[in-house]
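Hey, sorry to bother you again with one of my protein questions. A protein chain has come my way and I'm curious about its shape. I'm sending you its amino acid sequence along with the backbone structure tokens. I owe you a coffee for this, so here goes:
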Amino acid sequence: MADVLYACLYRPPQPDGGGAAALHAIAREFSPRFEAHGAHGDDLVVVDVSGLDRLIGPARVIGEELRRTAAAHGLRVHVAVAGTQTAARVLAQAQPGLTVVARGGEAEALAPIAIGILEKIDPDAFAACASSALNRWGIRTLGELAALPAADLTSRIGRSASAWQAIARGDDLRPLVPTLEEERFESTLDLEWPIEGLEPLSFVLTRLLEPLSTRLERRDRGAAVLHVLLWLVRSDGAPSPVYARRLELPTPMRDVRALRTLALLDLESHPPDAAIERVTIVIDPTPGRVLQHTLFTRAHPTPEQIATLLARLGALMGQDRIGAAACVDTYRPGAFDMQPFATVHDSKSEVRSQKSASFDQTSDFTLQTSLRRCRHSVPARVAVADGRPVRVTTDRRGYTGGAVVHSAGPWRVSGDWWLGAGGSDGSGGSGETNPTHPTHQASWDRDEWDVALSDGAVYRVFRDRQTDGWFIDAIVD
């Protein structure tokens, strides 16, 4: 196996700036594996030139060829060739011209370089406190820093000191991460004749999305935002207006059917007002989603299926009428808020639920009661003796009545009195509505009781203190 070899091209900061694109083009001529660094205006690339000795020659010849190519592009650069990318980066920034280091001689080549070079390699971490500390200790070169005891240095400066020592020795802290060329995921189709309606448009969207999905899969990317651009027909001969729709996807996806369905459902809710003569799809990519399934839980629907279902519901019911019920910061009985459904499952919560389930199976547990609340409180007739309910009856079908065998209460609850009070509408509150929760009344003031009836039913009932009316609020299971 051939030795790994890296070359670094460094272009010192120039008043006119620029040059990064040309430097990337030079690196791409020699190898597709190169990593660009451009912090603080410096242009620097590290190129993996392993194996080029069979095509170009030894390390020095490779370095000379890199300098010659850069000069042909009008760039004056520092070039360093070494067995590690860290040594190549440091030598290229510290020494002009061409520097070649044999494999295994990185630490010796870096030893005489001034300690201040670390400010270029890791400016944020090193410039904070290490420079002054090392100067007080009399450390002037990378060789002197590498010779210090690692444990003592770390205890005095911190964990980053071990990384600085690795740089001083020329050791790589991480592998080379190749810089990929920005790829635009866009597809356009000019139609032979204008189309109207979603059915013919669905075939066009499928034709455009299929190659984009293949490219996303090859690059391990998913669609984060889907842009649908429609050029509309104008009868007066004016330039075609562009009708644009932007869909922010809940999770990275590249399934053609899911993307097409989401686009069609959005256009169904927001249709264009003229025939279409040109269609363009633009995708904003993001890293692909990694799924780790578990062995002990039931498989969940995929995010594509959930996103499609929510889009269908939104088109049918309206976006403001679908969501998940969530608790709100209030003591108002029955108050809730609507939040968007989550389409990405939390693996940590699944693990916690598995652990709690396994714990419940092996430990003692106690049964707890639950309440089935009435969406609208049921009017009732309650007989009271000595301040306690003794009999509950109602005319509502499905609810029984009878004498009260056991009772607990009262629990007095009230709130939002500062919003004003009015006549009751039979739901246990005032007639005015709450601007935050329009489906609830503004203020409430009531006494709640849990009552067990002679027929076995257990209810939670309450007395509206403003109207002295009684209502069944929930069934206790």
